[in-house]
Amino acid sequence: MARDDNKKTILEGQAAINLWLEGVDVWNQWVADNPVADISFEDADFRQYDKVSFERYMFPKGHVNFSRAQFGKGDVYFDRARFGEGDVDFSSAQFGEGDISFEGAQFGNGSAYFFSAQFGPGNTDFSRAQFSKGIVNFDFAQFGEGDVNFYSTQFGEGDAYFYNTLFSRGNVYFYCAQFGEGNVSFEGAQFGQGFVNFYGTQFGTGDVYFDGAQFEQGDVSFYGTQFGEGTIGFSNVQFGEGDVSLASAKILGRLEFSNLVKVHKISGLSFKFTTFEGPVDMDGNEFHCIPDFTNTKLSHQLSLSHFSVKPKMRNKGKLFVKTLIGLRQIWLGSQLRFSSTKKAIKLSRIMAKKFPWLAQATAADRQDIDRLRRLKELAESNKHHKLALDLHIEEMKCSRWIETPWHQLFTEFLFQKLGDYGRSILRPILSLILLWLVCAPIYAVASNNKEISSDALIFSFSQMFSIIPSSKDARTESSQALYGTLIDGKLVVDVPHMVFAVAGVQSLASVALVFLIGLALRNRFRI
């Protein structure tokens, strides 16, 4: 122990370790006798001790330094420890293989630094810890394979930094944690395969950034979380294969949820019952699920530029599976082995992707239908006509075999194949040309000429565009050339009944195809 020029006590080195070994009562009595002092365990080596416990230890008003301290294989306890008003520094501290607990620890008005601290494979517990006015810094800290628990932790008025913090395989809990008025940063943080839980967390008025963070396979929950008036950034975040939930949250500031990385891995994304008081940016995301915005309240614009969704589908029908297995049984003349059945099922899935109508492809989750309707409503309110049309088409696909009556399915089938749901101009034009060329030989065969002449082509064309004034004269002249016969110097036109039937069908089909062209033009140039 030594004193500086200002008569401030400094406890450090082996003297500090010796006093700690005396136990909590002797330690706390020393603190009572020296209320203003700095304590330093910098570079201290605790590896020779099976367990390191500062449980209920009191620290004076001064700087507390555990930087680069090395803890052994046992557990480390700072439960309900009380730090003074100075800074607390655990920068680059190395914790051992046991559990680390700061449960109920109280930090004073100074900052708390865990910069580059390395936590062992055990559980790390900061539940119900209280930080005051200073900065809380876990930048570049590395947590082990155990759970990391910040349950009901109260962060003070200062900023909280978890920049590039590495969370390993365990679960991460910030359940009901409370952040103060400062900024909160999880930028570049890497979360492991466990569950990440921010359920009921309350963020203050500062900005909250998760930009560039990486989540692995576990679910991520911000259910019931309250965000303040600052910017909430999730740009360039990489989520894993689990579900992501911001349901029932209250977001007062601007939410940036744009340009997510490997967004196709997300199993589900929910904003259900969430209240947005600021603008929402979802630009640049191509989801392979349907984000749930049902029962949400939006006070500002929802930006959906370069946004798309792809619902998960399932094959309701078993036509391909039954057919392939049946054919293999007939061919082999016996019951199929497991490997043969497996191959048949795999082949049936390939066929189902190529022929979704025969496989009765429909939504894997019936709730996707309502989710698509809500997204379509939001796209329409933003005057994003192309996206609204695409979402309407996905809604139709998901509704097949669930809500769409069976007698309307054939019409929808033609609507898809001939016009791509009103999005294609080329398909109906090519269909018109094909219809024109297919009907012309029929008219020629039914005539006296029996050859495909220009008259047959003209007659076929006139049946398609009867609204054009010149088509009436063309139809009259071509019918005379095809079906006219001179009898006693008089031209008699006798059109076979089959020609009337084919011409009627051609005219109706032409009207439908012209309508599809007009619909595509309208959708393309809609204002």
UniProtKB/TrEMBL annotation:
Membrane-traversing stretches: 425-446, 498-521
Tree of life domain: Bacteria
Keywords assigned by UniProt, alphabetized: Membrane, Transmembrane, Transmembrane helix
Official protein name in the record: Pentapeptide repeat-containing protein
